[in-house]
Specification:
By secondary structure, the chain is α/β, with parallel strands linked by helices. The protein has nine helices and five strands; from the N terminus they run E-H-E-H-H-H-H-E-H-E-H-H-E-H. Helix content is 56%, strand content 11%.
C-alpha cells in the first residue's frame, strides 16, 4: 500500500502538514498515536516510551539489554515476566506498528524513523519539513505560550535528539537530502502550500486511486 512519511524539524509544523495531507488524500494518519501503539505493544505507558527515546542509552545498558533479550527464551514461565522496555525493544515494536499501518492501507506516517525503515519501498514518498530556526522557535512559542528564548532552546534540543535517534538506529544523517524525495520549507510555502505540493507529487506518481 502507498505511504507518505513526514519527517520534520521541531517547530516546522510537520504534524499539521501530515494532518492536512491525510485529509486531502483521504488516507489514514499515524502521528501521536504512534507512541500509544508502541506503549501498548510493550505494556508500558506512553510517558515511559518517550522517556527512553529522549535519552541516549549507555554502553552498559546496551550490553545488558542484548544479553537479557537473547536469554529471554531460556527463562522459565514463572521467571519470564516482561523485561523493562529499552530503546532496542521500542524500535522493534515501532517497526511492527509501521508495517501494520502500511499493510492496512494508504497512510501518512509521522516521524519515528519511518523514512529509514521504509527506504526501499517503491510506493513510498519521503518528505522532510523544514523551516528557519527563528520561524520554528516563533511557532513553538506561540503554540505553547512560552518565551521565545525558551522555545529556541527546545527547538535546538529536540532537533538534536531526533538527529541522534536516527544516527543511532539507522546510521544516517537525519537531515541529509538523500534520505528524502521532497523537502518543503513550511515558512516559505505555509502549511497549506506544503500540503498542496506534497499531494500534487503523490498524485503525479499515481499513488492515489
Amino acid at each position: 500500500m502507498p505511504v507518505v512519511t513526514i519527517s520534520r524539524m521541531f517547530g516546522s509544523g510537520g504534524s499539521e502538514v501530515a494532518a492536512g495531507l491525510s485529509r486531502q488524500l483521504h488516507w489514514a494518519l499515524l502521528d501521536n498515536a504512534f507512541v500509544e501503539r508502541v506503549a501498548v505493544g510493550l505494556h508500558v505507558t506512553p510517558a515511559q516510551v518517550q522517556a527512553i527515546e529522549e535519552r541516549r542509552p549507555s554502553l552498559a545498558e546496551r550490553i545488558a539489554d542484548a544479553f537479557a533479550y537473547s536469554s529471554q527464551e531460556m527463562l522459565s514461565a514463572p521467571l519470564g515476566a516482561p523485561l523493562p522496555p529499552t530503546e532496542e525493544r521500542i524500535l522493534e515494536v515501532t517497526h511492527r506498528v509501521i508495517d501494520e499501518a502500511v499493510a492496512r492501507g494508504p497512510v501518512v506516517l509521522v516521524g519515528r524513523g519511518a523514512q529509514a525503515w521504509l527506504a526501499n519501498r517503491q510506493d513510498a514518498v519521503h518528505v522532510l519539513c523544514v523551516a528557519p530556526r527563528d520561524a520554528c522557535a516563533a511557532r513553538v512559542a506561540a503554540r505553547e505560550g512560552i518565551p521565545l528564548h525558551e522555545a529556541a532552546r527546545r527547538v535546538d534540543e529536540t532537533n538534536k535528539e531526533r538527529q541522534d535517534y536516527v544516527r543511532r538506529n539507522w546510521k544516517r544523517d537525519w537531515l541529509a537530502p538523500s534520505n528524502y524525495h521532497l523537502c518543503v520549507n513550511t515558512d516559505w510555502l505555509g502549511i497549506d502550500g506544503a500540503v498542496t505540493m506534497i499531494a500534487s507529487v503523490v498524485r503525479q506518481l499515481h499513488l492515489v486511486t
